[in-house]
Amino acid sequence: MEQLVTIELFGQPYTFKAEAGVSNAKEVANHLVEEVTRIEPQHSSKSSVNKLATLILAALNIANENIKLKKSYSDLLKDISKRSTNLIHLLDEAVNG
Known about the structure:
- This protein is α+β, with helices and mostly antiparallel strands.
- It is built from two helices and two strands.
- It has one domain.
- Strands 1-2 form a two-stranded antiparallel ribbon.
- Helix 1 (25-39) crosses helix 2.
Protein backbone atom coordinates (compact mmCIF):
# COMPACT_ATOMS: atom_id res chain seq x y z
CA MET A 1 0.00 0.00 0.00
CA GLU A 2 1.42 3.35 -1.02
CA GLN A 3 1.49 6.23 1.39
CA LEU A 4 1.17 9.89 0.54
CA VAL A 5 3.73 12.26 2.01
CA THR A 6 3.29 16.02 1.88
CA ILE A 7 6.04 18.56 2.46
CA GLU A 8 6.15 22.31 2.07
CA LEU A 9 8.91 24.00 0.11
CA PHE A 10 8.96 27.73 -0.63
CA GLY A 11 5.44 28.05 0.74
CA GLN A 12 4.07 25.42 -1.65
CA PRO A 13 2.84 21.97 -0.61
CA TYR A 14 4.22 19.01 -2.54
CA THR A 15 2.67 15.58 -2.20
CA PHE A 16 4.30 12.42 -3.44
CA LYS A 17 3.71 8.71 -3.19
CA ALA A 18 6.12 6.58 -1.21
CA GLU A 19 6.38 2.82 -1.56
CA ALA A 20 4.81 0.84 1.24
CA GLY A 21 8.19 -0.54 2.32
CA VAL A 22 9.63 2.94 2.82
CA SER A 23 8.82 3.48 6.47
CA ASN A 24 10.99 6.56 6.73
CA ALA A 25 9.62 8.48 3.73
CA LYS A 26 8.41 11.33 5.93
CA GLU A 27 11.81 11.49 7.65
CA VAL A 28 13.57 11.67 4.27
CA ALA A 29 11.20 14.39 3.06
CA ASN A 30 11.67 16.35 6.28
CA HIS A 31 15.44 16.11 5.88
CA LEU A 32 15.12 17.80 2.48
CA VAL A 33 12.89 20.51 3.95
CA GLU A 34 15.39 21.14 6.76
CA GLU A 35 18.28 21.40 4.30
CA VAL A 36 16.36 23.77 2.01
CA THR A 37 15.36 25.88 5.03
CA ARG A 38 19.01 26.05 6.09
CA ILE A 39 20.20 27.12 2.63
CA GLU A 40 17.28 29.38 1.63
CA PRO A 41 18.42 32.52 3.53
CA GLN A 42 21.57 32.56 1.40
CA HIS A 43 19.38 33.32 -1.65
CA SER A 44 17.43 36.46 -0.83
CA SER A 45 15.54 36.64 -4.12
CA LYS A 46 12.39 34.56 -4.50
CA SER A 47 12.92 33.94 -8.22
CA SER A 48 12.39 30.47 -9.60
CA VAL A 49 16.08 30.34 -10.58
CA ASN A 50 17.13 30.86 -6.97
CA LYS A 51 14.57 28.30 -5.80
CA LEU A 52 16.07 25.81 -8.22
CA ALA A 53 19.60 26.73 -7.10
CA THR A 54 18.54 26.25 -3.47
CA LEU A 55 17.07 22.82 -4.25
CA ILE A 56 20.20 21.81 -6.16
CA LEU A 57 22.45 22.94 -3.30
CA ALA A 58 20.29 21.06 -0.82
CA ALA A 59 20.45 17.92 -2.97
CA LEU A 60 24.22 18.23 -3.34
CA ASN A 61 24.65 18.70 0.42
CA ILE A 62 22.52 15.66 1.15
CA ALA A 63 24.38 13.60 -1.48
CA ASN A 64 27.71 14.70 0.02
CA GLU A 65 26.50 13.72 3.48
CA ASN A 66 25.41 10.35 2.12
CA ILE A 67 28.79 9.72 0.46
CA LYS A 68 30.64 10.63 3.66
CA LEU A 69 28.43 8.26 5.67
CA LYS A 70 28.98 5.45 3.15
CA LYS A 71 32.75 5.94 3.33
CA SER A 72 32.66 6.07 7.12
CA TYR A 73 30.58 2.88 7.18
CA SER A 74 32.96 1.17 4.76
CA ASP A 75 35.96 2.22 6.86
CA LEU A 76 34.22 0.91 9.98
CA LEU A 77 33.55 -2.46 8.34
CA LYS A 78 37.20 -2.70 7.26
CA ASP A 79 38.35 -1.86 10.79
CA ILE A 80 36.00 -4.46 12.30
CA SER A 81 37.20 -7.06 9.83
CA LYS A 82 40.85 -6.28 10.57
CA ARG A 83 40.29 -6.40 14.33
CA SER A 84 38.31 -9.64 14.04
CA THR A 85 41.09 -11.23 12.01
CA ASN A 86 43.65 -10.14 14.62
CA LEU A 87 41.52 -11.49 17.47
CA ILE A 88 41.02 -14.82 15.71
CA HIS A 89 44.76 -15.02 15.13
CA LEU A 90 45.48 -14.27 18.81
CA LEU A 91 42.92 -16.83 19.95
CA ASP A 92 44.37 -19.46 17.62
CA GLU A 93 47.84 -18.79 19.04
CA ALA A 94 46.54 -18.98 22.61
CA VAL A 95 44.68 -22.24 22.01
CA ASN A 96 47.27 -23.93 19.82
CA GLY A 97 50.32 -22.59 21.58
